[in-house]
Here is the input.
Amino acid sequence: MTPYVEAVDITKHYDGVHALERVSVAAHLGQVTTIVGVNGAGKTTLLKILAGLDMPSAGRILIQGRESSQDELRAHCTMVFQRSVMFGTNVYNNVAYGLRTRGIPSEELSSRVESALVLVNLDGFEKRHARKLSSGEQQRVAIARALALERDVLMVDEATANLDPANAMIIERAIEDSARSRAVLLSTHNLHQARRLSDRVIHLYRGQVVEEGESPRFFAKPQDERTKLFINGELQF
Amino acid sequence: MDLITEGILRAIDLILTGDPEVLSITALSLFVSLVGTLLACLWGIPISAALALRTFHGKRILKGLFNALIGVPTVALGLYLYLLFSRAGPLGYFQLLYTPYAIMIGQAVLVTPIVVSFAASALESVDPDLRMLARTLGASEFQTYGVVIKEAFWGVVLAVIAAFNRAFAELGIAMMLGGNIRNLTRVLTTAIALETARGEIALTIALSFILLGIVMSLSIAINLARKPAP
Here is the structure.
C-alpha cells in the first residue's frame, strides 16, 4: 500500500550541524507512526520538513506517491508544536483561525469548532482567553485547532511533554480518535506513550533512522543495540 | 513672578474664550503634523515589517542606520531640506518652500526613523512561532504578516504616536521650511519662539499649554486604551 506521506532520503544541514542524514520515513492513513529518540535526535526538524514548514537540504517528500512542494505539504498536513502557541484572542477564534483562512462558511465553521473542542473536553471554553488557560488546556486547544482543519496528516511534536496525566490522557485519546481517518505522525521520547499509541515506531538517533518496525515487535525484540539501550533507558547522548 | 501669574491667567482666558489666532495656529499644527506622520507611516510601516520579518543582506546595517537617524538634529535636516526646496535646489521647481507642504514633507522625513525603529521593535517582539503556527494552519506568507501586525498592534500605535509627538513638538524644520508666516505656516512651536522673543508671555504660555496638553493627553490616552497582555 502506498504511504500517504513519505520522506525519502531527507538530509538537513544548518550552521555546520548535520540535523538529519538520509532519513526515510512513511506514514499511512489510519495509523499512528511514532518517531522516538532522545532530545536533539532530529525529531522536530523531521516533522517540520514533513509539514512543509522547513526546507530539507536534500531529499524528497511524497504525498500519495507524488513529489510535493512545501505549499502542497501544508495543504495536506498540519502540525501541533511542543510548546503551545496561542493567538492573542479567545479559544473559539484560535480554533477557527485555520478554517477562516480557508474561507469555510460560518455555519460549518461553528460546527467544526464545537466538534473539535468536544474532542478535547473543552466545550464551554469558547469565550475564554486562550493565553489565560493552563499549559495543559492550551495544548488541548492546539490539538483542537489542528483537528478542526480535518487535514489528512496530523503531526504532533512532543505534545504531552511536561503535562499532567489528566491532560496527557485527553490529548492521547484525541490523537487515537483522529488516527482512524488520518495519518498521524507523533514524536516523543516517552516510550510508554509510544507503546500505547503507535502502530509503527521509528527510532531516530543523531539524525539517522537506526531502527523501525511494528510497535509490538519494536518494543519486544529491538534489533539495533542503540534501540535496546534507548528502550532500557541507558542510551547516552 | 507677577508676569508669569498674569501670563497663566491670560493664557487660560485665551484658551477658554477660543481666541481665533490660538485656534488657527493649533489647527494648522495638528493638520501639518498629522499629515507628516501619516506620510511617514505610509512608507515607514512597510519598511519596519520588512526589517522585522524578512531576511536580507544589509538588514542589520539598515536597522542601525534608522536607529541612528532618530537623533538627527532637526536644524541640520531642516538645512538640507531647505537647500533641496530652495529656488535653486533640485526640487525648487515645485515652489514648496514656505508652504505647509514643505513642513509636512520635512516632518515626514524627520519622523520616519521613529516609525521604522519603534514599529520594527514591536513586530520583532512578537513570538516568532506564531508565524509558523499560522503557516501550518493554512495561512499564506502575506496572511502571517497580518497575524504579527495584529499581535504588535499597540506597539505599532505607540510608534505612530511617538512619531506624531515628535513632529508636533519640533521647531527647526517648521521654522526653516515654513518660515513662520502668519495664517499660512505659523504652527505652535514657531509661534511660541516668535511670541517669546516679542515678550507676549500670555500668548506663549497659552500656546505651550496647548502643545503640552495635546502631547501628554495622546500618550496618556494610548496607555489607558492599551490592554495589558495576558
